[in-house]
Amino acid sequence: MTGWPDRPEDPAVPAPTDAPTESPTDAPTNAPTESPTEAPTASASLVYDPYDAATGADPFPVYARLRREAPVYRNDALGFWALARHDDVLEALHDPDTYCSRHGITLEPRSPLPLLLTMDPPEHTRMRAVLARGFTPRRVADMEPTMRATSAKYLDRLRDVDSCDLIADYCGKLPMDVISAMLGVPEADHAQLRSWTDAMIEREDGNPDVTPAGIEGATRIYQYFSDLVAERRSAPGDDLLGTILAAEVDGEPLDDLHVVSLCFLFIIAGNETTTKLIGNAMHLLWRHPDQRARLYDDPSLVADAVEETLRCEGSTQQVARTLTCDTTVRGVTMAEGDKVLLLLGSANRDEDVFDDPERFVVDRRPTGHIAFGHGIHVCLGAAMARLETRIALEDLLVALPDHELDPDGLVRINSGNVRGFAAMPVRWTRR
């Protein structure tokens, strides 16, 4: 495999070693840090802007400074607070009475759709109880043959080549096919739906507003599922959409607005987060070939590697909440009505919780990570995402055991809260 820069010579991509996963010049040190007894004072140079492309490409040095200097951080320009430490984030996730979701879970204006993510109890409790029937352990397990067949289908198409764009040719296809199959979406429509969902999460550098392409994508997705729901009302079927159509809340069936909104949520969450998670895992394994070799020698570690990827490079980096009352954390008082970002990505690298947290170690078994959230809003599809990602890594380790990425061709998405790649050129040795 020739023609691409070696990793040690590429200044943007550190050589894959047991060193921290971030550039040595930027990574926080492993020196012990003391928990402050009063609110630390951040230096004037400390700025956290989730829409800044440079920060999005490597937020971890900023996260480390936030944990040390300003675990309760204020950005006046964008009008939000951010909690950076694991204990504070976890406590907020378990306190929906104080940190509510009904005003939206991002810094952008709340969607007008009745989404599960933006509901609070008791509405959230009733709706989630109904939807949980679509993600029971049995239903997720029943999807495994479909996941494996889909993975094999796309890897078989790569049998006679030695390079591809891993996002376009595999990572983006597998999750979209799986969630689409659950919703009864025809295969011919998968690529178009994926294009629309990709457009929705992309942001221009430094601009929190949804792009015109994102607005167009959201409109198209809503119309698509409005048509599909109308068609399926007369023949619900036994898939996830059929479960939703048959569901009742307080003895009444869900109206079209709620059903379409749920489909809207599932197609985005089921596609984007898992696509990015698989890509992030392959990027980490490339940067750490010693860890990749461990998985190749002992595939039983793949499930552990999925958990470590979630901790180290989870696709969802933060969620927002709105305060229902004045709240004091670590001596800092935040006002009722303020937006607060809960930095999941920072919490999952908290030195007080994880030993040597900047290192990627496939058998770490990081119990306590909160990549899927926690509390009443813990990700409904977490088990499915774990299974999909495990299957993907098991198959990719066999198909692409020595994969090499092109550092010059890697393209990250620019999003306020989703971390992952839009393009990932890869080569491997054909076997």
Please specify the SSE layout and strand pairing.
Blueprint lengths: L52 H5 L2 H10 L2 E4 L4 E4 L2 H8 L5 E2 L22 H9 L5 H6 L1 H13 L6 E3 H6 L1 H11 L6 H12 L10 H21 L7 H7 L1 E2 L2 E2 L2 H32 L1 H9 L4 H12 L5 E5 L3 E3 L2 E3 L4 E4 L1 H4 L34 H18 L4 E2 L5 E2 L8 E3 L1 E3 L4
Parallel strand pairs: 2-10
Antiparallel strand pairs: 1-2, 3-7, 4-14, 5-6, 7-10, 8-9, 11-14, 12-13
Structural class: alpha+beta
How many helical elements? 16
Order of helices and strands: HHEEHEHHHEHHHHHEEHHHEEEEHHEEEE
Strands ordered across the widest β-sheet:
1-2-10-7-3
* CATH architecture title: Orthogonal Bundle
Q: What does this 3D model show about the protein?
A:
By secondary structure, this protein is an alpha+beta fold. It has one domain (49-427): Orthogonal Bundle (Cytochrome p450). The protein is 42% helix and 10% strand. The strands form five sheets. The protein has a five-stranded mixed β-sheet with strand order 1-2-10-7-3, covered by helices on one side. Strand 5 (248-249) and strand 6 (252-253) form a beta hairpin. Helix 8 (173-183) packs antiparallel against helix 12 (256-287) and helix 12 (256-287) crosses helix 14 (302-313). The two termini are 13 Å apart.
